[in-house]
Amino acid sequence: MKSIAIITSGGDAPGMNAAIRAITRSALDQNMVVYGVRQGWQGLIEDQMIQLSAREVGGIMHIGGTFLGSARSAEFREEGGRSKALRNLSGRGIDGLVVIGGNGSQTGSHRLSQMGFPVVGVASTIDNDLFGTDITIGCDTAINVTLEAIDHLRTTGSSHNRAFLVETMGRNCGYLAMMSGLAGGAEVISTPEAEVSPAEIAERLRAAYERGKTHAIVVIAEGVKDNCEKILSFFEHDRRMVGFELRATTLGHVVRGAPPTAFDRILATRLGVNAVTALNDRDYGVLIGQQKGLVTRTPLGEIAGLTKPIDTEFVELARMLAR
Ligand code: F6P
Questions:
Q1: Which domain holds residue 151?
Q2: Are 16 and 100 in contact (CB under 8 A)?
Q3: Is 127 a catalytic residue?
Q4: Are 126 and 13 contacting, i.e. CB atoms less than 8 angstroms apart?
Q5: How do beta strands 162-167 and 216-220 pair?
Q6: CA–CA separation, 7 and 109 (whole Å)
């Protein structure tokens, strides 16, 4: 393989820059020419590419986001858009593509791969909802930022005898909410895989209040039906049913833009280097992930379009520990 392109697609994630650096430098080490695609799939359709040298990817590892830019592209979902993208790759003599991204992005990788182009995916999303990997680049950082917010809310909650509803990101997967809730000692964690009704939340908060707790944390995953707003309106007519005074905080994109943790930088480096190895091995159409501590390759056809739920063991663990 003589020339490759790197693209970051979908929602940005802390550690994407470290992955770009690792892919670029290991490809340069194999005497390949490396291009970076600007603004995700849309940039590929519009032929927005820059050549990357070792220097271009210096000084970026510690910065969140992606210096190449990212975007969601409706045009790429159509075959016509993908054909334009393929023409642009061929026009520059590029013979391999590394796609750093999550669920939607890897579905795009699969589609391009089905059209015969050598593509390798690198698992990266704060949601950790991809099959074919135990953990995705960016998730550890997002958990830690969410956890820091929970710790702060617990402190102010204790001062005022308050309960806090904290809404996390995570789309339809409860991993981010579950892990940050477990690490933050939350009283209740509601996820799409195991939703807790407003009535049950009230009951558990009331019980915590009566046991003499000075604060309570309720972590609500983005993808649940009864989100923060609905829970607050459920309590509106009688806030006393929860005992505590109640406040709500929605974290949103703040957890996505943080500097990557050491874990995410190392994961990104390992997966990035292995993506170049896979292209060199002519092992195309695979997702590079990490399973049981080892870097693995899973056919994109086996994972595209699927959302990995959380392990139900965590649901029981969270319930048992919230005493
Ligand atoms: O997939 C990452 C993610 O941050 C999800 O947790 C969230 O649902 C979504 O992206 C938000 O998308 P956008 O940045 O387009 O608002």
A1: 142-257
A2: yes
A3: yes
A4: yes
A5: parallel
A6: 10
Residue 152 and residue 250 in one domain: yes
The response to whether residue 125 sits with its C-beta less than 6 Å from ligand 1 reads: yes
Per-residue pLDDT reduced to its tens digit, 191-250: 999 999 999 999 999 999 999 999 999 999 999 999 999 999 888 877 778 889 999 999
pLDDT of residue 321: 86
246 in a structural domain: yes
Q: Say how many Å lie between the CA of residue 161 and the centre of ligand 1.
A: 32
Nearest CA to ligand 1 atom 1: 11
Tokens describing residue 318: 């969270």
In a domain, 311, yes or no: no
Asked if the structure places residue 149 within a domain, the reply is: yes
Catalytic hit among 12, 29, 127, 140: 127
Q: What is the pLDDT of residue 322?
A: 77
* 192 and 248, same domain (yes or no): yes
Which residue positions in the chain have pLDDT lower than 50?
none
**Do 62 and 182 fall within a single domain?**
no
* CATH value at residue 192: 3.40.50.460
Say how many Å lie between the CA of residue 107 and the centre of ligand 1. 16
- Whether residue 169 has its Cβ less than 6 Å from ligand 1: yes
Return d(Cα 83, Cα 153) in angstroms, integer.
Answer: 49
Prediction pTM value: 0.96
Residues 213 and 128 in one domain: no
Determine the residue type at 118.
P
Per residue in 50-73, pLDDT tens?
999 999 999 999 999 999 999 889
Question: What is the tally of structural domains in the chain?
Answer: 2
The residue count of the chain comes to 323
